[in-house]
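Async update (no meeting this week)

Hi team, since we skipped the sync, here's where things stand on the single-chain job. The sequence we agreed to prioritize is pasted below, unchanged from the tracker. I ran it this morning and attached the output directly underneath so nobody has to dig for it. Comments welcome in thread, and please keep replies under the output.
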Amino acid sequence: EFHLSQYLVEKEYLMYRITAINTKKRKSCEVLDAKLQQSQSKIKRLENEVDGLRNYICLLSTNNSKLKNEVEALTKKTERVKKNEVIQEQAHLNEEMVNITEGMINRNDEPSVQKLRETIVSLTKDNNLFKNQLEKKVKELKEIRQIYGKTIIALSSERRKTELLVKKTEKESKQFTKANVKASSIEDSHNIDVEKVRNLISVTKTRVSSVYSTKY
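Output:
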């Protein structure tokens, strides 16, 4: 009877321990499930942010290429216009000089000389005006190149910042994945403890049955 009562007490203790372990396991599982859901939500949000940042980098690269192409096209157009204007102006000056020379040969008088002087003064003014316009266009082209250079630098800086942010989010995603693995291992250890208690109860039941059969 003493042994039987001892086994019954041991059985009650084991049942109490099982209940406590199950309660602890249930609470731990609830906490782990909540943390797991929270981690998965944050991982999903980080993945979406990474995708958005990658798309933004692609957009910056596209805009950078477009801007570079526009500047190159503008440079070529400016050089082509400048070359055509110089050629046209030179042809005009040559034509004026030929006309003036022919006029002087045909009419060697004072009015023709005066007209020649006036024409030379006019051509000199036109030439100076053309030079000023040409210098203005060259200055505008330099300003455009400076703006393009600053824009390229700004885009490069923005791209570096975006790449650093992508690396940071990927690192956080890996950390959350490790946390999920650790949570799974904790749950597995709880399952092992419960299995040990069940085996102990089975052994105790066998011993109690043996005592009953021996006594009666």
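Quick observations from my side:
The chain has a mean pLDDT of 72.
Residues 2-215 form one domain.
Reply here if anything looks off.
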